[in-house]
Amino acid sequence: MITLSVVAEEFRLREAFTISRGSRTAATVVRATLTDEKAGVSGHGECVPYARYDETVEGVIAEIEACREAIGGGMDRHALQEHLPAGAARNALDCAFWDLEAKRAGKPVHELAGLEAPKPVVTAFTLSLDAPEAMQAAAEKNAHRPLLKVKLGGEGRMDLNRLRAVRGGAPDARLIIDANEGWSATDYELLAPEFLGLGVTMVEQPLPAGKDEALEGIARPLPVCADESCHDRATLDALSGRYDMVNIKLDKTGGLTEALALEHAARAEGFKIMVGCMLATSLAMAPAILLAQGAEIVDLDGPLLLSQDREPALAFDENGIHPAEPALWG
């Protein structure tokens, strides 16, 4: 019999993290644990309830708790896909099921999923939204990192000043930017040439989801990645002709199972792949590393923004973020 436990946990950040929608000083995650009492093994999964998608910690915990009877009655990962919609709650349970399956089988998740053994991948490091001078200082501090992701605020000329400051602080880093739905199509047309001149290689979700049809009729010299507009395979068709890349996050897809299917479908439709994350611990990043193999952009820096991570934690070094040890996940 499989039993379920679920708990909310808070992890403090190294410093305040700000995007166009607000600022925070801590990350609150929900951890689900599935235990096979007979085999004496447990699987873990972590998710981040996100207000942008009308999720709350209490609501996600309630969704997971509502699955307790079905889990006890034999529901598995495959049945879970129909039992819960895509979102944070399903992500925590899906990843816990994968981990439990691996522990039961004595095999790593990548073997169970038919994937090659994962290798370290270079991850972006995110610079929080701030005044240009502060962002330049942050860029100087992290100039050794090969890939920086710059949060912008939808303020036109001020965003350009921020980006110029970051480039001044990190002249050799590859840059990507995240507008967090803060621009209009006019902003994109005006700013894209300027950003290209500063060496930016991609902009993430410049327009609000639901208003991105404006991208369909304009040239996109600066590649555009869908984040809030892309959740699972059901949202993919609406992105054709509007986006060049999709950002796959486990909390949006509802877990690794759908994320792998979305990656395959997106590649077939000609999209490039970014693998991203919410502000979370190494437990949330671990399954995403499997997804990140071969992705054009990897953004799994959540643990680097925390003042304290889980133990054991993922290893980060000059080679990037390393695959998880079984004691953590998978």
UniProtKB/TrEMBL annotation:
Active-site residue numbers: 151 (proton acceptor), 249 (proton acceptor)
One Pfam family, short name: MR_MLE_N
E.C. numbers: 5.1.1.-
Residue ranges constituting the Mandelate racemase/muconate lactonizing enzyme C-terminal domain according to the UniProt record: 132-225
Organism (species): Pararhizobium mangrovi
SUPFAM superfamilies membership: Enolase C-terminal domain-like, Enolase N-terminal domain-like
InterPro entries noted in UniProt: DgoD-like, Dipeptide_epimerase, Enolase-like_C_sf, Enolase-like_N, Enolase_C-like, Mandelate_racemase_C, Mandelate_racemase_N_dom
Keyword Ion transport among record annotations: no
Superkingdom of origin: Bacteria
Co-factor requirement: Mg(2+)
Family under the similarity heading: Belongs to the mandelate racemase/muconate lactonizing enzyme family.
A GO term, aspect molecular function: metal ion binding
Enzyme class: isomerase
Binding site for Mg(2+): 178, 204, 227
Annotated keywords: Isomerase, Magnesium, Metal-binding
Keyword Lyase among UniProt keywords: no
Name the record gives this protein: Dipeptide epimerase
Cofactor annotation remark: Binds 1 Mg(2+) ion per subunit.
